[in-house]
Design a protein that fits this description.
Rossmann fold; 2 domains; 11-stranded mixed β-sheet; 5-stranded parallel β-sheet; 12 helices; binds threonylcarbamoyladenylate; binds magnesium ion
Length: about 350
């Protein structure tokens, strides 16, 4: 069966459709919905069968825990056994918003939802459609990103339909998401809070609010000797079909390097994709060039990353070269996703030419 797709926006909610979607979730079905970060694939978080269905629909390993979404800060108490001071402060400051916190799990949350762990990830999204759906579903919606496991996360309903249209009951289409990268994950099960996944809320913002906050070592070290703590961060995620390389260095050298590699690949009769910016797109002489956004507005880069990767899948290019995006605020989050998509393949041009 194909999923029913219903379009709406925050100012014009389709209350009937949300009610129906809530009933589907209460009855153990699956509904995809927009959030401010990426689209989520929702199931009732307190129903172990619904969580198993989510894993099956995504083709996701069931040891990779799901995030429990709430739409009322008071509900946090019901799914956790302990809320440290730091978590309270972050909830007050950043919820509803693109922040997920890992806390000790209460018994009502089944182990199927948490991938067998004793901790639970909780998030209160700011998207109004998401909030209304969560309320209609009884208050607790487990939702990973609504993509097939291993594909870029969906930033619009069309992406969800492409990946999961045959596997779920309903898709709430709220248009393009705002941020385009998944929420920041902060782990409160250790003495000092640890960022397990960087996002729109940066390490610096968290440190400003809480004092000491660490970055998970598994994220900083790019060889595989240290495993990231969030099980999902160890998989080669967000992967485009083509071979992706990131090229880093002085802009002019990056452009020259990509141009020469691109024409080499084209001489072999293959097509090349190039991930450029508004500032550089015109300077590439070969290949299919896509601008990801402007370096002057780094939000646009985060916003378009997954869409651009998906578009290249549709084009059937055999290699992709991307500029690096170490932008001031969201650079950590953008580069974390891009490096994973590239399997950490990074070419540093200055060094090569020495
Ligand atoms: O922005 C988001 O967070 C989106 C939207 C839909 O809310 N959701 C999302 O879910 O990105 P997902 O399943 O794609 O990513 C959840 C990440 C995974 O890397 C998972 O391993 C980690 O959170 N995670 C969940 N529960 C955890 C736990 N108890 N301990 C450590 N990591 C956990
Ligand atoms: Mg995901």
């Amino acid at each position: 069966m194909r999923a029913e797709i219903v379009s709406m926006d925050a100012e014009h909610l389709d209350k009937e459709a949300i009610k129906k979607a809530g009933e589907i979730l209460k009855n153990g079905g699956l509904v995809a919905f927009p959030t401010e970060t990426v689209y989520g694939l929702g199931g009732n978080a307190l129903d172990p069968k619904a969580s198993m269905k989510i894993y099956a629909a995504k083709g996701r390993p069931s040891d990779n825990p799901l995030i429990v979404h709430i739409a009322d800060i008071e509900k946090l108490k019901e799914v956790t056994t302990e809320i440290p001071e730091g978590a309270r402060i972050l909830a007050e400051k950043y919820w509803p918003g693109p922040l997920t916190m890992i806390l000790p799990k209460a018994d009502i949350v089944p182990k199927e939802t948490t991938g067998g762990l004793d901790s639970v990830a909780v998030r209160f999204p700011s998207d109004v459609i998401a909030q209304e759906l969560i309320k209609a579903a009884g208050g607790f919606v487990a939702a990973p990103s609504a993509n097939t496991s291993g594909r870029p996360s969906p930033t619009m309903a069309e992406h969800v339909e492409e990946d999961l249209g045959d596997a779920i009951d309903m898709i709430l289409d709220g248009g393009q998401v705002g941020i385009g990268l998944e929420s920041t994950i902060v782990d409160f099960t250790e003495k000092i809070p640890v960022v397990l996944r960087p996002g729109y809320i940066s390490l610096e913002m968290l440190q400003e609010t809480l004092g000491e906050v660490k970055m998970d070592k598994g994220l900083l070290i790019t060889d595989s000797s240290v495993r990231p703590k969030a099980p999902g961060m160890k998989y080669r995620h967000y992967a485009p079909e083509a071979d992706l390389s990131i090229v880093e260095g002085e802009t002019e050298k990056v452009i020259a390097y990509i141009n020469s590699r691109a024409s080499e690949v084209e001489e072999q009769g293959k097509t090349v994709g190039i991930i450029a910016t508004d500032e550089t797109a015109d300077l590439y002489k070969a290949g299919v060039v896509r601008s990801i956004g402007s370096r002057a507005e780094e939000e646009t880069i985060a916003h378009h990353l997954y869409e651009v990767l998906r578009d290249f899948d549709g084009d059937g290019v055999s290699a992709i070269f991307s500029e690096a995006f170490y932008t001031p605020k969201m650079g950590q989050a953008i580069m974390n996703r891009l490096l994973k998509a590239a399997g950490h393949k990074i070419i540093k041009v200055q060094e090569e030419q020495k």
